[in-house]
Specification:
- The protein is α/β, with parallel strands linked by helices and 109 residues long.
- The chain is 30% helix and 13% strand.
- The mean pLDDT is 86.
C-alpha cells in the first residue's frame, strides 16, 4: 500500500539531477601540429607544484621543439582566488600581446 502525502509535505512531479548547462559547448580548437618556433603560455592556479613542474616542461619541450619560446605563468598571475575574475578577463589580451600560439594550462596535480 502506498502512503499518501500529508498536506504539509512538498510533492514534486519532476526532479532533474543534472541541472541546466551554464554555457554552450563548442568544438575544441585545432591542435598546433608542431611546437617548433611557437610561443607557449603557461597558466596556473598556484595550488600544486607548478614552480617545480613548469621548469621541467620548459626544458623538455625546448629539447624536443627547436625555437620554442615561453610566456611564463608569472605574467598571467595566480588565476585562482579573490582576484580570479579580473585576472581571467586579462588573459585574452595577454595572449594576443605575447603572440601566443598555444597554452599549457595547469591545475592541480
Amino acid at each position: 500500500m502506498t502512503a499518501r502525502p500529508t498536506l504539509s509535505e512538498a510533492t514534486y512531479e519532476v526532479v532533474w539531477p543534472l541541472g541546466k548547462p551554464a554555457y554552450r559547448t563548442r568544438s575544441p580548437s585545432a591542435r598546433v601540429p608542431d611546437l617548433s618556433n611557437k610561443v607557449l603560455a603557461e597558466t596556473w592556479d598556484y595550488l600544486f607544484r607548478g614552480e617545480e613542474i613548469f621548469p621541467i616542461l620548459r626544458e623538455e619541450l625546448a629539447a624536443r621543439f627547436p625555437g620554442v619560446k615561453f610566456v611564463t605563468y608569472d605574467v598571467f598571475g595566480n588565476l585562482h582566488g579573490p582576484r580570479q575574475r579580473a585576472l581571467i578577463a586579462r588573459v585574452p589580451e595577454l595572449l594576443r600581446q605575447h603572440k601566443v600560439d598555444a597554452v599549457i594550462s595547469a591545475i592541480g596535480a
